[in-house]
Each structure stands twice: as structure tokens, then as C-alpha cells.
Amino acid sequence: MADETSIFIGASRKPDDSYQRAEELLLRYGNRHGLVTGATGTGKTVSLQILAEGFSNAGVPVFCADIKGDLSGIAMMGEAKDFLVKRAEQIKLDPYQFQEFPVIFWDLFGEQGHPIRATISEMGPLLLSRLMNLTEAQEGVMNIAFRIADEEGLLLLDLKDLQALLANIAERADELSARYGNVTKPSVGAIQRTLLVLESQGAANFFGEPALRIADIMRTTRDGRGAISVLAADKLMMNPRLYATFLLWLMSELFEELPEVGDLDRPKLVFFFDEAHLLFEDAPKVLIDRVEQVVRLIRSKGVGVYFVTQNPLDIPEKVLAQLGNRVQHALRAYTPREQQAVRTAAETFRPNPDFDCATAITQLATGEALVSMLEDKGVPAMVQRTLIRPPSSRLGPITPDERRKIIAESPVAGQYDEVVDRESAFEMLQKKAKEAQDAEAQAQQQNSGGSRWTIPGFDDVLGTGNRRSSNRQTVAEAAIKSVVRSVGSSVGRAIVRGILGSLARGR
Ligand SMILES: Nc1ncnc2c1ncn2[C@@H]1O[C@H](COP(=O)(O)OP(=O)(O)OP(=O)(O)O)[C@@H](O)[C@H]1O
Ligand SMILES: [Mg+2]
What we know:
Blueprint: E1 6-13, E2 19-26, E3 34-37, H1 44-57, E4 62-66, H2 82-90, E5 103-107, E6 114-115, H3 120-131, H4 136-151, H5 159-171, H6 173-180, H7 185-200, E7 228-232, H8 240-257, E8 269-273, H9 277-280, H10 285-298, E9 303-309, H11 317-320, E10 325-328, H12 336-347, H13 357-363, E11 368-372, E12 374-375, E13 379-380, E14 384-388, H14 400-408, H15 425-447, H16 459-462, H17 472-491
Parallel strand pairs: 3-9, 3-10, 4-7, 4-8, 5-6, 5-7, 8-9
Antiparallel strand pairs: 1-2, 1-14, 10-11, 11-14, 12-13
Adenosine-5'-triphosphate is lined by residues 38, 40-46, 68, 70, 84, 87, 366-367, 388, 390, 395.
């Protein structure tokens, strides 16, 4: 099937409602991005499902989020239900074949799929600040924290690394302020408290190793089909900020890791961004600019990004302008904002003299959409009223048993299931503190004439651990600084990366 050049998405109809012709998405423009919109219950998820099926059959790996669990059925063979068969006949889909698709289930919480993790340093200060909803002053401190980790060779992998670093920074606030600008204890404290909230929301699972390897979401099967990675997002949706930040991170990782490829005959990966409004809701301008930039540039890396959302007004204009392949399901038009959305949606299409776009949008049936795909030379085709094809896989969710079986047989089974906790900032800072304490104990012993007895293993009882001197902090600080600096250069500087993670705001 990998020699096909298009994906069949449905059939358009003439003004008298009779069959007009097949509507297709040209694979060579699959990286020109897309948009699926429509009110609730109008057929967005099914449209996403049939697009994902089409890409998979064409050998293109797909990554998508499953918000309500109803996309998971794509892993199972569909059934000939009456309304599906009827739809197939209406659009002259003959034969209407059923098929199961190669699915890899993922879950940030590790429950409904293989755990997905990223390291703190991969996430970077910009996305972390967004995730934690930090103020500008706090974000400044976060940037400084990353710089310090970088300069002092402290690996930031999981939440406790960041916590340890922040505790260390709070202790050295005065010294660090002199070097980097304002690092106040209250702002560090505020970040620490937000981190605790994040932890209580389950984000601790997400930060750490083994981190997701991009290659694992770009797999194909032996028979040449693209794997469909389905991210369980029902629980994730209770923390929309984590959801949005994660998908942004993934997009920036793809951007960072994939080489430039120019125009290909089909994309290398297609990425569906469901509930896309969450990306942009109260997002700072700098972030929106970055997203716009990534969407624009990722095209030449062969990645297509498809936004799925209820209302086209949810997407900033600059991003919207880059979404070439469009499926517009029905919108309601009761409130002024809804009417505005209908007008905006209608105006973005190349008009069709056969019907009025704005009127049509409010009259579309379930599973019917206004469709305009890019045609020759990448120009948007004239908009068509289109009945979307029924899926070949199951409509609706899979059972927990079916899911378990697929997870157990997945090509990444066993690779991500266990957390690996290698030495990083937390352990390093702990060790330094311990060394500093020991050094201080020794100094005190010498001060007291070295007459103290110790019993191995009972240092803390007999030693100075319970008689802390007032200069303990400074001794500890000094030791941390010197040892940590010597480690610094060997770990390398590039701990912060990613177009969305980098420090420089302006870039
Ligand atoms: N192309 C189609 N062919 C046949 N039936 C369809 C098609 N599209 C949608 N339907 C029917 O409409 C129902 C609702 O579609 P879907 O779940 O895709 O809506 P939605 O826009 O994703 O809704 P929500 O916003 O609530 O997630 C489906 O369960 C199915 O019964
Ligand atoms: Mg849906």
C-alpha cells in the first residue's frame, strides 16, 4: 500500500445531494499540516481516526492523543454495523474492508500504556515555567537555576534533582544574586511550593529516565505500515497544563532531533494535537511565537501537525494560516462568539459557487464536513461538502483486557516500564553536603585536640552531627562549590536544549 499517493477521506456531493467525487488528502502535502474542527459530537474523532488509518496504511507513523478513550478502537478490527455500511455505500467505498492497526499505547502515568518520560533538562526552563505557571520573576530564577546546573555540571533528570538544586540555590541566594542577578529566597520558595503541587498531581512519574526515544514513535511494521502511537489522555486532561506542555515538548524534540529532508512523497511522521485550544489558552506571547515557529519549520523535517479543536478561533491566526488540509465539521451559531467562529471558518475556505459556506457549516450532519485539501502546487482546493468515510477499525473504545494484551505484545514492551535513577543533581548535592559535613566534623575534632573516640558506624551519635556549629553552612557551601565546579566541565554545557526549552527568549 506504500505506493499510494493519497488517503481517501470521503465523497463530496453535488448541490442535489448526489455523489460528486472522491475527496483525498495528497500524501506529498501531508506535511503541510491540517486542522479538524467542529462542535462536540459532530465527528472530529472519527475524522482523526480515518486520517490516522490512512497515514498508517501509507507507511507513515502517527502520534495522537486519546482524550476520551474512544480512539483506542483503532487497534481492533472494525465491524459491519448498518450505519457504517450505509455510509460506505453512499460514498462508493467498495469494497469496505475491515482492518486492525499496529498501535503502541502510551501513558504519562504508566497505567494505560507504556510510561512516557522526559528529563527536566530536556523540558527546559521555558516549558517548565509554563507548566508551573510561574511569574516572570520566578521564571527568571528558573532560568538561573538551569544556568547554574549547566555551569556546575549538575544533571537535572527528575523532580527531586530540581528540588535539590532549588534548595541549594536558596542557601546560596546572596552569593548567586551577586553573580546572576536577583535570586530571592521567597521566589525560590514559591517555585519549590509549585513543584510540590506538581508532584502531588502525578508529574513525578513523568520526569526521569528512561526518557522517550523519538525513534520509538517512528516505527513501521514489517509489512510497511506506520505504527500509531496512542497516548492515553483521559486522566491527563485533568491536568491540561501538563498535557499541553508534554505535547509541546514532544513537538520540540521532534524538531530538534529530526534532520532537514525537504519535500518528500509522504511525511515521516504525523502528529495529531487534540484539544489544541489548551496549547494556547493563557499562553504567554513568547510561547505562542515559538509554537508558530516550530509548526512552520517542522514541515521541512517531514512532520505534519494536525490540530483538532472545537472552534477555529481557538488557534492563533499565524498558526491557522499554516494549516493546509482542512476538515470543518458542523458548528453551532447561537452566541455572537459562535457566529463569529462560523464566519471565520467560512472565510478561510476557497469558496464554492454551489453553496454558501457559512450557512453550510451550521447545517452539516454528523460525520459530514466541509473539506478542503491541498491540491496541485500546494494550493487549497475549492471547499466541498463531504461525507467522511467510515473507519476500518473499531468505532469506540477497546476493553481493558484487549489493551493489556496489546501492551504486552508491543515492540517497546519492557523498555520503559522500570524507572532508572542514575546519579544526578540530587545525589551529587547530597554527597557534597555529606562531604562538607564530614570535613566539618574533622575540623572540629582537630579543634578539640583529636581526643575524641569514635566507633565505626556510630559517627553520628558520637560525632558532631548533633552539635552543629554556627559556621556549618559556610563550610558546607565552600565544599559544594569547589567540588561541584571541578565536575562541571566534564558533563558538558548543552543540558538545555530544544527550541521551546532554550534560555534565550528572543531566539
Ligand atoms: N465518518 C463517519 N461515519 C460514520 N459515523 C460517524 C462518522 N463520523 C461520526 N460518526 C458518528 O458520530 C458519532 C460521534 O462522532 P465523534 O465521536 O467523532 O464526534 P466528536 O466530534 O469527536 O465529538 P466530541 O467533541 O464529543 O469528542 C460517532 O460515534 C459515530 O457514531
Ligand atoms: Mg471526539
